[in-house]
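ESCALATION

Customer reports they have been waiting on this structure for their group meeting. Please prioritize. Original submission:
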Amino acid sequence: MNIRIICVGKFKEKYWEAASAEYMKRLGAYCNVSVIEVKEEKLPAHASRADEENVIVKEGKSILEKIGAGDFVIALDIGGRELSSEAFAAKIADISFTASTVDFIIGGSLGLSAEVKSRAGLRMSFGPITLPHQLARVVLLEQIYRAFKINAGETYHK
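Update from on-call: job pushed to the front of the queue and completed.
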């Protein structure tokens, strides 16, 4: 299975890079995992709602260009479905029967465009909290790793 994390923006601190690299290394035993970073659009100093919407649309187009026609898309969205680790693992197992590539989408600070949300086969949430996208990427990688461990019947601390 191919797992792709498509996200807006780059890591700014080395500790996020280190945590991400560790989980990507661990995931290498179970799947091909890669990260695709798209450009984070700049907002004007005193941005209007129209300026914000323009940024969301531009970032959304950049994300959609990276998604393959047959890919299964899971968008991280605060309004999405909350899944336990076990339910998430089961979802990954189910998807593996129908798609060879799963694209996880992490938006920028303003969120995801309606077009990206509608392309998603699943909108998923880590709960009613807002996470910085850098932290969300690390949490996502850890949860993907946990899902593969669960599906392989291997122990992993709870």
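Sent to customer with the following note: Residues 133-151 form the longest helix (19 residues).
Escalation resolved.
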